[in-house]
Amino acid sequence: DASDIASTIRQKRTKERTTDNLTNQVDMKEKFMNKPSEALNELGVTRIENGDDKGYKIDRNADKRILQAGLQVGDRILSINGQTLDNGLSEKDIARQAMSAGRLRVEVARGKRKFFLTVPVPGNSD
């Protein structure tokens, strides 16, 4: 009957969305490992290299996952898992460490305040 058909369509759409989400997570993880700058740009995170001001800035088109993690537009990321972003490690090295840790401990500067956030890495335990 009609309610069975509607239910089947809903289940199919939910399954497709779940598959798309998993595919997007795998794609993003793959891109993060191989082309971290590109992946970060897609998430609305841009690199800052302005004299002593180094790190990454959350810009106004930040991905909702970035905002859900507690970051805000204008925040600057100073270090990830204790690694300052200007210590000579490449973005790929930092990405590899972050993926293997499963969580990121992010040092954030917001205005004059500095604090830490712990952010889960998508795709590791999901």
Q: How would you sum up this structure, described in words?
A:
This protein is an alpha+beta fold. The chain is 44% helix and 28% strand. It is built from four helices and six strands, in the order ααββαββαββ. The protein has helices at 2-34, 36-42, 64-68, 91-101, and strands at 45-50, 53-58, 76-80, 83-84, 103-110, 113-120. Strands 1, 2, 3, 4, 5 and 6 form a six-stranded antiparallel sheet that branches. A hairpin with a 2-residue loop joins β5 and β6. α1 (2-34) packs across α2 (36-42). It is elongated. The mean pLDDT is 75.
Runs with pLDDT <50, length 5+? none
> How confident is the prediction overall: mean pLDDT?
75
Terminal residue distance: 36 Å
Question: What's the multimeric state?
Answer: single chain
Helix amount:
40-55%
Discrete helix count = 4
How would you describe the shape? elongated
Order of helices and strands: HHEEHEEHEE
Q: What class would the helix/strand composition place it in?
A: alpha+beta
Provide the β-strand percentage band.
Answer: 25-35%
Largest sheet: 6 strands, antiparallel
- Number of E-type strands: 6
Radius of gyration: 18 Å
